[in-house]
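Reply to dn_fold:

You asked what the input looked like. This is it:
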Amino acid sequence: MPTISRRTVELDLRGHVCPASLLISLNKMNTMRKELSSGEVALRILTANRESVPTITDSARSMGYAVTVERTEAHYALRVENPGEEGIR
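and this is what came back:
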């Protein structure tokens, strides 16, 4: 099976709160729609605002993307990608 090489674009929203973090995330997902949908790119969103996590996650999933959330001591990292490419790194 061939290995798929994917570029990850990072969006650092630490310091932003909702609704600004949601609007910035939606804008980035819309701007990158073609690359995200093709699986060429994954979007990694960093936020320190706990309330932003479910709103960004729900919005990305409603757009058809797979979302995984990782919590670190300092922030949350959300990975948005093509659902058919989930788990392939």
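Helices lie at 20-31, 33-38, 52-62.
Hope that clears it up.
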